[in-house]
Specification:
six-stranded parallel sheet; Rossmann fold; 10 helices; 15 strands; 326 residues
């Protein structure tokens, strides 16, 4: 299973290739509790099929009903859901009690639509980081270079332009199959990561079954060296086997992966650092990129607890939080 953003855009491309008009819906802003963050997508076909989500289901149902009634025939519509003071959406109260602003774009069956969606997909695949600009008055859409970190959605009320920051979909590469791998993969899928597990043992790969996870029967280092990592990739080695773990680390530090970690005690980690410096050809700077021991210090004992510590540390690093930051 791919990251939900990629699924949304790939399905949109499939519909556009069939010359179908479609509606791309984006969460612009949230107020109070909300199940989906700004930037979340849903795409709907002219027959009412959809993929993605904006809420727990109530907003999606309302949108489909309105679309069937002939609404949203303009290039751009902005809807507010959950606000009792807004006449347009007052009849729908969100179960979480929050408020959603949703941008609805009607994308006609034209070559320009397909070209635009293809650029979106390229950004999610890691080929390019861009800002997607949408003029709310004219419906004009174009891309500019993405300048750096920041909020996923920026709404400039004065200019009437919405900017959406697009970056690669989050990916987790798990190097090696061990008792930790399955719970780690399951946590990552729940968190919205695209997850790939690599191990050279074909029998172990055949037995590994976590819904939504791709399994590849090859050395993780080979997969990583083939260009599997982009800037939104985390790589974790979880086997205690240096033939798998060390090689994966040697290749991973040559990539833009934002998190690279390997399991082991402090003593094991110190020994690994020495091996990587001595015979692995890595510099001290490269070794210092490695999170080892991996994970937050939660006192974890069981495989599930260790997996939780690993994923918690990955999320911490992704959000740029110091390990002791409140």
């Amino acid at each position: 299973m791919q990251h939900l953003d990629r699924q949304v855009i790939e399905q949109a491309i499939a519909w556009a290739q069939k010359s179908e008009t479609l509606w791309l819906c984006t969460v612009l802003a949230t107020f109070g509790s909300s199940p989906r963050a700004p930037g979340s997508w849903m795409v709907v076909s002219q027959t009412g099929q959809f993929i993605g989500s904006l809420s727990g289901g109530c907003v999606e149902e309302d949108f489909i009903q309105r679309l069937g009634a002939g609404e949203f025939d303009q290039p751009i519509t902005v809807m507010r859901y959950g606000d009792p003071n807004d006449a347009q959406g007052a009849h729908l109260a969100l179960p979480c009690g929050g408020i959603l602003d949703v941008l609805i774009e009607r994308l006609p069956a034209e070559p320009e639509t397909l070209e635009h969606l293809t650029t979106l997909l390229a950004a999610l695949q890691g080929h390019r980081r861009v800002l997607r600009n949408v003029h709310l008055s004219s419906g004009e859409r174009y891309f500019t270079d993405e300048p750096g970190l920041g909020p996923r959605v920026i709404h400039d009320a004065e200019s009437g332009i919405v900017q959406m920051r697009l970056a690669p979909a989050r990916r987790l590469i798990i190097a090696g199959i061990s008792p930790i791998s399955a719970p780690c993969a399951a946590f990552a899928v729940t968190l919205g990561f695209e997850v790939i597990v690599c191990d050279p043992d074909e029998a172990a790969c055949e037995d590994f079954s976590v819904p939504g996870v791709a399994v590849k029967a090859l050395l993780p280092s080979v997969y990583i060296a083939a260009g599997a990592c982009h800037s939104a990739t985390a790589v974790v080695a979880l086997t205690h086997d240096p033939r798998i773990d060390d090689l994966a680390m040697i290749e991973a530090v040559r990539t833009p992966a934002f998190y690279i970690g390997v399991m082991g005690s402090r003593r094991t980690s110190a020994a690994r650092a020495g091996r990587l410096l001595r015979s692995g050809g890595l510099s001290e700077k490269e070794v210092n990129r490695l999170h080892m021991p991996i994970g937050l210090a939660l006192g974890s004992k069981t495989p599930a607890e260790i997996a939780l510590a690993v994923m918690a540390d990955i999320v911490r690093v992704q959000h740029g939080r110091a390990i002791n930051e409140l």
